[in-house]
Give the backbone structure.
Amino acid sequence: MKALLLTEYKHLEVTDFAEPDVSPNDVLVQVRACGICGSDIHGYDGSSGRRIPPLVMGHEAAGVVTAVGENVTGFEPGDHVTFDSTVSCGECFFCRRGDINLCDNRMVLGVSCGEYRRHGAFAEYVSVPQHICYRLPESLPFEHAAMIEAVSVAVHAANRTPVSLGDTAVVVGSGMIGLLVIQAIRLAGCSQVIAVDLDPARLEKAKTLGADVGLKADEVNVPEEVRKLTGGRGADVVLEVVGATPTIQTAIESCRKGGSVTLVGNLAPKVEMPLQSIVTRELSVYGSCASSGEYPACIELLEKGAIQVEPLITAKASLEEGPEWFARLYDGEAGAMKVIIDPTR
C-alpha cells in the first residue's frame, strides 16, 4: 500500500509500505480521510518525542471496512467506521471502570515514543482493534467523521466541567479545539460563552460558532472584561485550551469565587499556577485528557448538525500533497486549521 512515512524529522515521503496484518480481533479499514493534528506537527520536528522515525503518523481518521479478523462480530466489509485514537487494553483497572483514556497500557495510533511504535492512518489502510471502532451513518461525510476525534476531546472537556443551565463560560484559546469546546459547552447548558484569543479572525469564527463575545487578549484586560459581563463576579466555568502559564493565569483570574476551571490545553509540560487565587477563592480545577466513550454522542451531534466542523476544515488533500501541507502548517500558515488527507485521491 501507499503510506506517508516520516523517514526523519521534517521529512515525509509517500512510499510503498507493508499492508497491516489483521489480527483475530482487528478490523482492516481503507482510510478515506485522516486529519493532520497539532500533535502530528509537533511530532514532525521531533519536539514532542512521541513521533520517532520511521513512522506512519495519523490518528484522526475514518474509512470503510475491507476485512475483519476471525473473532470480529460487530463489523463487516463495507461498513463506514471511525475509531478512537487511543488503543486501550480493555482489561486494566481503569478500562474496567470505563476510564479508557486513563488505560495503564494505552497506545496511540500514529505514535512512536520509545516504549512502542504504532503506525497510524496516513496510509491507504490501517488495522485497529474492533473495540475502539464505531459504525458511522453513511450520510456523514468521511472528512467530517475524521473530525470526531477532535470533537470528542471537546465534548469530554465539557462533560468534565460542572455546568448548570444558564452558566457563563469563558473559553481561553480559540484554535480548532477551542472552537469545538465553544460549541460543546454551549450545548452543555451555558447561556453566555466568551471566547478569548489573540487572533481576530479566530474570534470572529468563534462568534459564528456560538460565542456571544470575543475578547482579544492583547488589547483588553480579559478578567476585568469578564467581570463586566457577569455582574462583577467572573465566569461560572472557564476552559483553558492552550496549555501555557499566561493563558492558565488568565483562565483562573476570569473565574468567579467557587467556580471551576477545566484545563484542556497541553502545550507546556510545566506551568506556574496562582496557588493563593485558587485556594482563597475555592476554585475547582479539572484536567481533561482525550475522550472516554463520547464517540457515539459525537457521531450523533455531527449527524444532526449540533456541532459544526466544516467551517474548521482548511483543505482536503491527497497523500502526495501531504508533505507540502505539513511544511505549510509547521511554518504557521495564517488562517489554517484542519487539513484532511484522503489516501484514495
About this structure: The longest helix spans residues 148-160. The two ends are 14 Å apart (CA to CA).
